[in-house]
Amino acid sequence: MGETVEKGDLARLRSDAEAVFLAAIRRVDPYEAVKRFVRREGRRLLLGERPGSAGDLDLDAYQRVFVVGGGKATAPMARALEELAGDRITEGRINVKYGFSETLERTAIMEADHPVPDRSGVDGTRDIMDLLAQAGDRDLVISLISGGGSALLPQPAGRIRLEEKQAVTRKLLECGASIDEINAVRKHISGSKGGQMARAAAPATTVNLMLSDVVGDRMDVIASGPFVPDASTFQDAWHTLDRYGLLPDLPNAVREHLEQGRNGVIPDTPKAGDPAFERVTNLIIGSNIQALERAAQEAGSLGYAPLILSSMIEGETRDVAKVHAAIGREMLKTGRPLAPPACVISGGETTVTIRGKGRGGRNQEFGLAAALELAGLPSRIVLLSGGTDGNDGPTDAAGAVVDPTTVERGRASGLDAEAYLDDNDAYTFFSATGDLLMTGPTKTNVMDVRLVMVK
User: Fold this and answer.
1) In terms of CB atoms within 10 Å, which of 32, 164, 294, 299 comes out highest?
2) How far apart are CA 172 and CA 354, in angstroms?
């Protein structure tokens, strides 16, 4: 009888964790984010969560209105904008990830690959840049940018070929580099990032609406900041490649382009104060902390004392998992930092240094590392880690939900959790144990949400 009750309590705990995660995702729905931040009154668009607090646009003052953008959440953002200003939109072009499309009336959609760019992304970006080149001083450009935009808005710079850019991107994703470091390189081997779309759109008026997927909501890092002054340099990109030992295998065209930039032969990306940004307004309309705040509200409604730890968690995934598991063990033993029932919440984006050949993503890797730390504890604790976009790495899972029985359930199926972790193969392990977190594409992206829930 006692074992049956314990299993029932654990099932409820896991169900509650998933409910909290889904509530967090709903809070950063990109369609709703645009509708909260942009309102239509007659011929004017009022910007800001308080109408007009971030400015307003007299649509009659512009000859044409162009919509551009890219990212996993950009299609629903465009749908909201079409409902608000569809009668004034002259033309629109956006790039989204495969499977993240919507039905739009005035905005053409190009589906492309992520996280490694493909030819469709290049073709779509070329079309966007061509549209921006048409914009004049009496035109309005509305940009819709979200996480994933760096890979979805590729335009290889100089003589760099797509295949060479793909190779560099793969190496950066595998070596454990942070998103800031990866984007510093992306900006400097691309002709569309690091403020270069703003340069193409000038002298038009531009409003750039962004859904943030980077720690600290740094505008120049979100999708590599296509409309934002670039704080990084060619030297920063070179330093990143050197730090991770990637210079020896760098394609010749990439090496030559970066060396020309370092030596001042070609201009760097536009910086703060550049005339390209004189008529550009950059606004963040959704972020990770909003998702965490909604998660805390949901946890409270389910009877758990909530605590937001941080929305800025970075570092090696396995190390971060051990810390979160330790917090859970402390709550079980001493009731600190919260006495159960409690839910500790964190966000941000960790990195995985790939050493094996398996399948997974940072959230699944987090789950497997955490499961090893939870093994043998009372069945009153659950850890969840999920990507808000619904796709963790190159898989169809958002992440994983683990508990003290996870490792043993794997062992019963003949699986060694440590061996699968060493091979970066969390997806295969969790496919067998039933611990994958499956949401399908959410069409939003504000990094990750992690939960430590204790009964």
Assistant:
1) 299
2) 11
Nearest of 237, 204, 258 to residue 61 by alpha carbon: 204
Residue in the block written with tokens 């987090």:
366
* Tens digits of residue pLDDT in 86-120: 999 999 999 999 999 999 999 999 999 998 999 99
Does domain 30-155+190-232+269-286 sit in CATH 3.40.190.150?
Answer: no
Count other C-beta atoms under 10 Å from residue 50's C-beta: 8
Question: For position 8, what pLDDT does the model report?
Answer: 84
DSSP letter at 204 equals: S
Q: What is the pLDDT of residues 277-308, one digit of tens each?
A: 999 999 999 999 999 999 999 999 999 999 99
Q: Interhelix angle for 317-334 vs 362-374, to 10°?
A: 40
Give the domain ranges of the chain. 2-26+289-454, 30-155+190-232+269-286
The phi and psi torsions of 351 (rounded to 5 degrees) equal: -125, 155
The CATH class that applies to domain 2-26+289-454 reads alpha beta
- CB-based burial, 352-371: b 16+ in 10 Å, e otherwise: bebeeebbbbbbbbbbbbbb
3-state secondary structure of 393: coil
pTM, entire model: 0.89
